UniProtKB/TrEMBL annotation:
Residues 1-42, 244-354 are annotated as: Disordered. Keywords: Hydrolase, Metal-binding, Zinc. Pfam families: AstE_AspA_cat (PF24827), PKD_4 (PF18911). CDD domains: PKD. Residues 258-310, 328-337 have a biased composition (Acidic residues). This is Succinylglutamate desuccinylase/aspartoacylase.
Amino acid sequence: MQTQTQDQSDPGSTDEADLSRSSFTILEGTDDETTVNVTEAPTDGPTVFVIGGIHGNETAGYIAAEEITEWTIDAGTLVTLPRANPVAIERTTRVDDEGVDLNRQFPEGSDPGTELATAIWDVFSEFDPDIVIDLHESRGIYAGDPVDGVGQAIFHSRRDDVAQLAADTANAVNDTYIDDSNRAFQTGYHSAPGNDPSGLLVHKASRELNADTFLVETVSTQNELETRVTWHSAIVEHLATDALFPADEPDNGHEPDEPLDEEEEPDDPPANENDPDETEPDDGDDSSGENGGDGENDDNSSDGDGDNGDNGENGKNSENGAGSGDNDGSDDSDSDIPADHTAPTATIRTEPANAADRTFAPDETITLDATCSSAPDGELVSYEWSIQNDGTYDESGQTVDVTVSATGEHRVLLRVTDNAGAHDTTELTLTVN
């Protein structure tokens, strides 16, 4: 990667003395105590809220948010919550010590699900931001199937102007920082109301506060931390330029000393924005917490939030397990499947129930049951399982027993195929501690 990182706190055009900087803590005296930072410019303008560290193993997001805290802004208000989930950050895991995924605790139309989520939402409600940017990481690059990861993507709320801003941002960052077209940033919509995965912070902020919301996913594998932090910071800077830097180009230290050589400029990224019917990523999470994205999607779109172990973006959750993560039911080999064929739906039920929301002891056995999967236009002929967390399908059958000895998070994939050759994939993450 030809990416250079400079001091992120280089000033813009406003004198530091003219800024108002303050901070306060939430849940003081508890394990979840964390700090909110507020920077106010002398010129009125929108409020931008940047949050990182919702998942504790997505390091670049919270480090970037900490550096963004020091930015000099020319207008409006910048609010940052870099370490949203301090217990998970301390554990370097996606979930906290009770196995709770913080980014599933913000249901629309009802109260947040935990004390920490409630405290965070209270801050959002107080500042009522115009723009919300949530920073995440994934171990895989988004390529239309959330099972593979949701990295290098900017997911956004469902308004045309927001979609255009996301697309312009992706193009600008790709032109300046990306010399490998395989790592070009793409864009995608948040999932529609009533679709899984649900409970994401950006969903609630978009639909209850009417904010323009963005969920940013960088890919953590084969990229240095410094590079990923630069990507996050550059994306936030571009998304927030009109709000925080309306007069001049911001100077927050992201620009490389020299632009990419002309022959090194990347190919244009895939134009997902022009085809919103494309399946988009979900949030994937694995043992390092970086294969995920908080994928949000509806039937034709999604979001990423760094957890590839929850719900595929295209999926629907079962009551006890995980929902479909790849419901298009086709790939390059599916040319013989009728156009009106309804793809199967892969669903995992577990015993004990709700295994994805629990924390297991080492060597505890979990039964994974695929019998609740369905094939509306035929019958299921194949049930394949990936148990070893390496993407290969090494088990088959309607049910399998899994015993995990090592502590951490372990991703399990299920792929079902019907008699027409259409298939669907879903996954869940088992947490052992």
